[in-house]
Fold this sequence. Notes:
Layout: H1 3-21, H2 23-51, E1 54-55, E2 63-64, H3 68-74, H4 77-108, H5 115-127, H6 130-140, H7 147-154, H8 166-194, H9 198-206, H10 211-222, H11 224-239, H12 243-248, H13 260-269, H14 274-300
Antiparallel strand pairs: 1-2
Helix pairs in contact: 2-14, 4-8, 4-11, 4-13, 5-8, 8-11, 9-10, 11-14, 13-14
Amino acid sequence: MTSHTLREAGVRRAKAVRRRGTGWHAYLFVGPSLFGVVAFLLLPMVIVLVLSLFDWELLSAPEFVGLENYARLAADGETWHSLWVTVAYVLLCIPLQTVLALALAMLLDRRIKGLRVFRSLFVIPWMATPIVLGLVWNWIFDPREGALNSALALAGITGPDWLSDPAWALPAVALVSVWQHTGYSMLFFLAGLQGIPKELHDAASTDGATPAQRFWRVTLPLLNPTMFFVTVTNLIGAFQVFDTVYAMTDGGPSRSTEVLNFRIFQTAFKEFDFGYAATLSTLLFVIILLVTLAQVRFFGKRTTYDVS
C-alpha cells in the first residue's frame, strides 16, 4: 500500500471520527431551542387539543365529552360571527400594511440625510405596548375632545363616533394596527431591497425599461422571499389580534370588533368554559395553518433565493 493511499485512508477515517464525534455536540447547541419549542409550543398545543375533548369549568374535575364541543362549535353562531369579524380585520389590515411598508421601504432605499432617524421613527410604534397605544388612540378617537375629530372640525367635517359606531369601530382598530406594524414590516422590505444587485436595475434601464417596468419585472419578483416572510408573519399576527381590541373597544360596540381571539378569552376567563375555549383555540390554529400552507404553496413556485 502506497503512502498516498495511506494518507487518503487516514483522512477518510479522521473525517468519519469527526462526524461521529460531533453528533452529540450538535444536540448540545440545538438543545435549548429544542426545549423551548417543545415546552412552549408543541406541548401546549397537545394540551389544548386534549382539553378540547373535555368539559372543564376550572373549579370542578374535567369531564370527558369527546367531540361534543366540536358539535357545539358547528352550531355556534356567535363564534362564526367572531370568525367573520377576524377575517374582515385581516382584510382591512394586511393589504394596506403591506403596501405602505413596501412604499416606505422604497422611499428609504436611497441616500437621504437622516436615514437612520427615519427608520427609528417608523419602528417606534411597533416597540410600544399595545395596551398603552390603545389608551392613547382612545383619546385620539374620542368623538368630542379627540385629536382626530378636532382636526376634522377645522376643515368643516363632523367626524363620526369612531369607537361607538359599529360601522367605524373595526376600521378604527385596524387603522391602529396598521400604524403600529407598518414600520416593522418596512425594515424587512428595506433589507430585501438592499439585497437586490444594482446591476440588475442598471441593465434594465439600459434596455429601456421604465421605472414601473423595473419595479414589476425586477424589484417585485426578487422581493418574493421577503414578501413571503412578511405576509406569513403579519397574517399570523393579525389572526391572533387581542391586545388592541381589548384596550380600545372590549369587543364592542354590538360585538362588531369581537375577533376570535377575544371570543376565546371571554369563553375561558369570563364564562370559565375552558374545554370549549380550547376547541375555539384549535379552530383558530387550523385556520392559521391552512392560510400559511396556502401561502407556502403560492409563493413556493414564484420565489427565487439566488440573485447572483
